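Table 4 source record.
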Amino acid sequence: MTLRHLQGIGMTSQRTRDRMISRLIEQGITDERVLKVMQSTPRHIFVDEALASRAYEDTALPIGYNQTISQPYIVARMTELLLENKNSFNKVLEIGTGCGYQTAILANLVDEVYSVERILPLQKKAKSHTELLKLNNIRYSYSDGSWGWQDYAPYDGILVAAAPNQVPEALLQQLAVDGVMVIPVADPDDGQVLQRITRTENNFQVEQFDPVIFVPFLAGKE
């Protein structure tokens, strides 16, 4: 991939990216760290070339294998919720690497990202995307996301990009005390709701935020 393609032209140019940032601000995203990273990250390289011209629209796009890249607002919102009450993160666990866009955003904001994906071809694509951006603080695991990644636990933050009916116990136990998890949770009556879970010394504090639409959280590997 050429430098020109990385930088983008036309509907993938920096000007188009800047318009996306203006829209995110209008939608209520205020964290300057998140806005700055999303402004500099070429989202168009994470989707198929045929969809590149739509990369900066505020919409989810297909990435194959019945998966999607989340709309920019949701990426910004989840990242902002994760970072909101902490100045720094050493280790963040991501469940659902997908195409690697959210992974890249996190890698620019925290010390280390540990990313788990259950669909091997997607993981391989994500690796190639983040390598293009020379992001060297990411480790990848091909595994069932409901298991988390015990080898490197506990984590200061966990971000989940698929919606379970209930939060997997393994993820709760791999969260450090004072750690934060951002996760969409499915409710049979109310649809999916974005939750932020903070671990305290004795229990877990749960906050409810936006209604969202994510792919379901599936067990096993493909």
